[in-house]
Amino acid sequence: MRLEPSSLQTLIDEALAATPPGRAVWVALSGGLDSSLLLALAAEASRRHPRPLRALHVHHGLQVAADDFERHCRALCSRLGVPLHVERVNVDVSSGEGVEGAARRARYAAFGRRVGAGETLCLAHHRDDQAETFLLAALRGAGPRGLAAMPTEREQAGARLARPWLGVSRAALEAEAMRRGLTWVEDPSNAEVLHDRNFLRHRVMPLLEQRWPDAGASLACSAGLAGETDDLLDEFAAEDLQRLGRDPGRLPVADLQALSLPRCRLLIRHCLRCLGLSSPPARRLASLLDQLDARHDAEVRIVWEETEARIWRKTLYLMAPPVPLPPAWRVEWDGRAPLVTPLGEFCMALEREDGAAASLVLTPRLGGERLPLPGRGRRDLKRLLQEWGLPPWERDRSWVVWHGECVVAVGSPQGWLALAEGWRAP
To answer: What is the pLDDT of residues 368-390, one digit of tens each?
Structure first.
């Protein structure tokens, strides 16, 4: 696809116009051809669609030339009259995801720190980038979500990430940059074919385009179709979740077993995305599904990447690893909200029914506590927690409220579990 210069500018104008007035538009500026051109056109667009325009440069510190990139960005922003913000990051190359993956993670974390809710971040990814991302995903055995590659727009922590040039070839961008006499910096590492993406760019794509001249456009089109498929699958999974109780962190095992295996896998991955948790590797997911028919009293636990799944009493729980209360934790409390604990701050309050002042102490459940319940007398707290059906891992996260030597309430991150006779939660 060959675009006229005016068409390139129109795509940027539309990206700015879609941002609410008064909200900032950021341009991710690496200093290369694509992002330098994007900033130049965004500066022109901001005069027609007045929005605060800012540039964001992420300094990875991975090579000697990194300081040259920053200097170029500062000079370009000074010439265009655009404020520049530089984020210096540490790339964790020991994370196991490779240098490219670790740098990308650090870069998007920097975007999240700087770009606020309601603001727009424009990225200069183009059609050639999309084709490479599709191929990389295919070579890793990805499904529709991975093959969808990069979306034209998505939300990140309330901010809007936009890629206005995702349907434009790099050749079209280079022609426009040359026409404008624009200067940019070349990343020396882009010529190295040791990295997977560079190998595809310099060795594989030219070979494909010799045989199929429109290979890049076709691959990018396939990524778009995969995105539509993924959106449709998300709709199916959302309907299943609605039928199964609407709680993505708690799914009835019997209902899961009534689904086909592909549909069950789809629903679990959908629920994890709803919870902001990572999807399991294929083998972990297969192991989880194999254990859906575990005994009623069994406690199944499968862990991966800051996420875990547990099966207890024929229910599948999906969660971040639960943090128990420290055994030595003890705090005085006047019964007024908020209630501050090591597990967070909760809008919970407690008072005596007769209105008298109360001096309370909170501790973890240590064993042997008894709670006087209205009409039931003093009951062992351990048995009460079992009777209430509180999962074992949540029992270690519950706290006991003492008034002198008496237990007067039991709470958890979900709220008050029980109150003693003579007490109420206002």
So the answer is: 888 888 777 788 888 888 888 88
